[in-house]
Design brief:
22% strand, seven-stranded mixed sheet, six-stranded mixed sheet, alpha/beta, binds glyceraldehyde-3-phosphate
Length: 534
């Protein structure tokens, strides 16, 4: 993939170009928003024109409501047209052309999107660039995966005297809601497969990480037929809630918290018709066995707990360490945490960056205080150091069930360490947990690891051996048990999650066979076709 490097920007002079977004995309048109707008601030402080120092104003977005939400819904419904629309019946090759056009245009906006990722959600530059490039790769991979799927469907089966031409068809109108921590990648990992399968979509960016979508509005408008992609800005309760109440959404695709997913689902009057594609919260544990390679374990636990300050659903959110090695682990881990470089996202070699949610440092402090009151100590010197937008990662030990940080998904820089003497302790904790996404298992002895893997695989959906938890590579299944997910995402699985198997059956009679053959030769149907896409 050709990468477009971000032009060097002098960040010492602050945020240079505010983005005042007054447009939204509905029914193929970029409309001018005339109503109220909401300011978008970064928690990174800078000096404003009046010489006051405070949160940096990055721009404004429309504060849209029910009327605009309904217009987007109608546009998406019209484009789907109960399955008769241009998009759901279009030839696969033509849908893919739209997607290829889009990704080519998207790539030209890399520099601005990366810049906004750094200011809006304070992701460090390397990770912001990775998020953009990974998303572009995901789109290319999805195009290839769909061609593959289509090639495999370009055939007839015959069983019990019945010919069948089986494909996967779209589900209808999809409401896409993404998270703030991966505002580009995770949202597009929902939106792109939903589109490619022939669904029409309404998409509302998350509360943080919203301006970075605005450079892409035109690319969406120019690449897809009217009503196929509709993009709105504003609060979920004013946009998503009224849309759900109509009962006209066929798929709720959401990455975020289960409380939002349940609330939205509850508004839908026909729940049996609503398909859910949800990536939700998690409390992934690391289990460190007595014979774990200490250097490797510390390195992986640092990246697992603190990449993007622990604001990842896949982050390691609790570490169970065997009592025989816990002292050594604690002292080395605490020192490694204190050595991590904190700074602004664009600074060279920065790993830790400010937190984009204004209330997050105070929340992290609450968790620390609660744990301390119940007997835990902060092991690292810098742990819990507080500024207006950061709480330095605190390594807490010993943590037990009575503490809030044991139960709550901290989604931020605080690391609870729980000592154990018998492996049944972390296993019981995982079995009792509300979550079941992934686990990291650190150790070497196959007689211990073998049976453990057999149990862990039934408690979560990915067991990472001697490595941090993560979603990627994106071709692997990404899902979870219990409160952690509904449906599976991966380049391959997402195409299935956003579609349904549907087929044409025809009894093996001379009368029907002649019709089928004529259909195949005539190209009258886009569904009945054995053409191959290379
Ligand atoms: O927030 C959850 C993301 O899906 C995590 O993805 O493991 O690539 O950071 P990642």
């Amino acid at each position: 993939m050709e990468k477009i490097a971000a032009a060097p920007i002098d960040h010492s002079v602050g945020f240079q170009q505010q983005v005042h977004c007054s447009q939204y995309l509905v029914d193929g048109k970029l409309h001018q928003w005339q109503g109220n707008t909401t300011p978008v601030y970064s928690t990174i402080y800078s000096e404003n024109e009046q010489g006051e120092v405070g949160p940096t104003l990055l721009g404004t977005i429309p504060d849209m409501g029910t009327e605009a939400a309904m217009s987007a819904l109608h546009a998406a419904e019209k484009a789907f047209h109960r399955g008769q629309g241009l998009w759901p019946t279009m030839k696969v090759a033509d849908r893919l052309k739209c997607l290829s056009n889009f990704v080519a245009k998207m790539k030209t906006h890399r520099a601005q999107v990366v810049e906004l990722l750094m200011w809006e959600i304070e992701k460090n530059q390397a990770d912001a660039e990775k998020e953009f490039d990974r998303t572009v790769d995901y789109i290319y991979d999805t195009i290839e995966a769909y061609k593959n799927l289509d090639r495999r469907s370009a055939r007839f089966d015959k069983e019990g005297g019945v010919h069948a031409h089986i494909r996967r068809g779209p589900l209808g109108v999809v409401l896409c809601l993404g998270p703030y921590n991966y505002p580009l990648n995770e949202t597009f990992c929902l939106l792109i497969p939903a589109l490619v399968m022939g669904n029409t979509t309404i998409f509302k960016p998350a509360k943080h990480g919203v301006l970075l979508i605005t450079p892409l509005l035109e690319a969406f408008q120019e690449s897809f037929p009217p009503g196929v992609v509709n993009i709105l800005f504003g609060r979920g309760r004013k946009i998503a809630s009224p849309i759900m109440e109509t009962g006209k959404i066929d798929v709720l695709a959401l990455i975020g918290h289960s409380s939002s997913a349940v609330a939205l689902q509850d508004l839908h009057p026909n729940k049996n018709r609503l398909r859910l594609v949800l990536g939700l919260e998690a409390k992934n544990p690391g289990i460190i066995l007595p014979d774990a390679d200490m250097d490797l374990t510390i390195k992986e636990c640092i990246s697992g707990t603190l990449s993007y300050n622990g604001q990842r659903c896949t982050a390691l959110k609790m570490l169970f360490v065997h009592e025989s090695i816990v002292d050594e682990f604690n002292s080395r881990f605490a020192q490694a945490v204190d050595e991590l470089k904190y700074g602004l996202p664009w600074e060279e070699g920065v790993f830790l960056t400010p937190l984009p949610e204004p209330g997050k440092p105070a929340y992290i402090q609450e968790l620390i205080k609660d744990a301390e009151e119940k007997g835990a100590k902060i092991l690292n010197k810098k742990g819990g150091e507080l500024t207006h937008n950061y709480s330095f990662p605190a390594v807490l030990y010993p943590v037990n069930k009575s503490m809030r940080v044991y139960e709550e998904e901290q989604f931020g820089p605080v690391i609870p360490i729980i000592p154990y003497s018998d492996i049944s302790e972390p296993l019981d904790a995982m079995a009792a947990s509300e979550y079941g996404q992934q686990v990291s298992l650190f150790g070497r002895d196959v007689r211990k690891i073998g049976p453990l893997i057999d149990t862990l695989a039934n408690l979560v959906c990915r067991v990472n051996l001697n490595s941090a938890c993560q979603r990627g590579p994106d071709v692997y299944p990404f899902t979870g048990r219990k409160n952690s997910a509904v449906s599976t995402l991966s380049v391959y699985d997402a195409l299935r999650s956003f579609s349904i198997r549907t087929f044409v059956a025809s009894k093996d009679t001379p009368y029907n066979n002649e019709i089928l053959e004529t259909l195949l030769n005539s190209h009258e149907s886009n569904f009945i076709s054995t053409d191959y896409l290379l």
